[in-house]
Amino acid sequence: LLWWADGKFTLIVVDGLAPLAAAFDAEEDGRVASYRGYTIDGPIDSARHLRELLQALWSAHGERQHIGMESAALPAAVTGLLAGAMGGARWVVIDGWLAPLRMVKTAEELAKLRENFRLTDIGHAAARAAVVAGAREIDVWEAARTAVEQAAGCRVPMGNDCAVGYRQENIGGWPLDFVLRDGDSIIVDLSTIRHGYWSDSCATYVAGAPSERQRAIHRVASEALALGAGLLRPGAVAGEIDRQVRAFIADAGYPVYPHHTGHGVGVTGHEAPRLIPGSTAVLEAGMVILLEPGIYFPGETGVRVEDAFLIVEDGAQRLTTHDKSLNG
């Protein structure tokens, strides 16, 4: 929750998260207000403490405020709590208002994103080294997670996929105890969440020597990624990039992936613009775009490669540097 009054933004957080918001509190136009979460003085009732904090803010500013609400992101329980704390408020639905602001990154946001991409690069190097016959998906994931957290010096929430090629649903999934056999592929799609921002990246590795089919589909997917990267520039239309990348894979004689070609990233893992069929979104300088074409043969093998790019005036700059070549 964010409150604006008297020229300052107030970020409202539960007290346990207040230390993580210290940087916001240090901003000239920012402050942090916290409410009690955990306590030993009585029942845990964070909703009541939040309501009391909101009532105090509301009363302090004359009870004459408009309240903007992203309805799609606001749970019904919180909506009821807000309404009870702010009697007489004029509610304004602001769905979609923040998307344009989130799409184009500031210098401060880019610094946070670059740090996250640095961490996923480190995670990929560790995952790559862990891909050997006899290792389980969870072993590969644990190697990546440990490397990321050692580099960051703290716990780092992570996603997304770590799935062997012989899974029937082999596009992705949480790591389980599937064991890599000699010649098996594994898709490793890593995100980190640090300083309030996400990263994303993907590579496919093989335990041992890749087969001819694996080499072929990896080559085509990599060429599709390069094609898409060459199309990234201000003024480019997201749906047209999607169309050309899909057509490249289809023209090579392979099944076209059933997911997006790319997406934005920032305070969430998937943001606008999305590179999907029919999208009319126009790219702008300052956007950060992920491209992730793939080729999949369920129950046998699959490949996905993904890089992040910053849209600049004359094209795009790659932000991820992980090695996307196959092992072997």
How do the helices and strands line up, and which of them pair or pack?
Blueprint: E1 2-5, E2 8-14, H1 22-25, E3 30-35, H2 46-60, E4 66-69, H3 76-85, E5 90-93, H4 99-103, H5 107-130, H6 137-152, E6 158-164, E7 185-194, E8 197-198, E9 201-206, H7 212-231, H8 238-251, E10 262-264, E11 271-275, E12 288-291, E13 294-297, E14 301-304, E15 307-312, E16 315-318
Keywords:
globular, 328 residues, 8 helices, Creatine Amidinohydrolase, alpha+beta, 4-stranded antiparallel sheet
Mean pLDDT: 93
What is the helix fraction of residues, given as a range? 25-40%
CATH class of the largest domain: Alpha Beta
Radius of gyration based on Cα positions: 23 Å
- What is the assigned CATH homologous superfamily of the largest domain? Creatinase/methionine aminopeptidase superfamily
Overall CATH architecture of the largest domain: Alpha-Beta Complex
CATH topology of the largest domain: Creatine Amidinohydrolase
Distance between the termini: 50 Å
Structural class: alpha+beta
Task: Please trace the helix and strand order, writing H or E for each element.
Answer: EEHEHEHEHHHEEEEHHEEEEEEE
How many domains? The number is: 2
Question: Residue ranges: pLDDT <50 for 5 or more in a row?
Answer: none
Largest sheet: 5 strands, antiparallel
What oligomeric state best describes the polypeptide chains here? single chain
Identify the overall geometry.
globular
Instruction: Work out the number of β strands.
Output: 16
Q: How many H/I helical runs?
A: 8
